[in-house]
Amino acid sequence: MQKWIMFSLFIVACLLGAGVLFDTISERQAQMASEAKAGPQLKFVASNFKFDQAEYTVKAGETVTVSLNNKEGMHAMEIVGLGVHLDNNTKSAEVKFDKPGTYDVICVLPCGPGHAEMKSKLIVQ
Ligand SMILES: [Cu+2]
Prior knowledge:
- It contains one helix and nine strands.
- The protein is an alpha+beta fold.
- A hairpin with a 2-residue loop joins strand 1 (about 40-45) and strand 2 (about 50).
């Protein structure tokens, strides 16, 4: 009798394990699919007290997923003149860049002694 109970428990544990495994796999597949589907990306990585690139470029007319990653410190960014504002609450946005030009990218959250110099450029070609 006890053996039978042990066997049942073992089967239940196996099923649970398999269920969790398949869940994880399908989640990962969904994530990969959405990443593959996503169009051009524009990623800003912020640290104390700079953005990871002095210049970023995008193509005019494209809809781009713009994202901000605060690798170090707390920063918020704005693409001046385009009304694009990202921070820890809104980490990404879909933006269509229509007008070619060079735009200033600035940190708009007082983040420390280097805040005023925390600038970059976005070139829409
Ligand atoms: Cu700042």
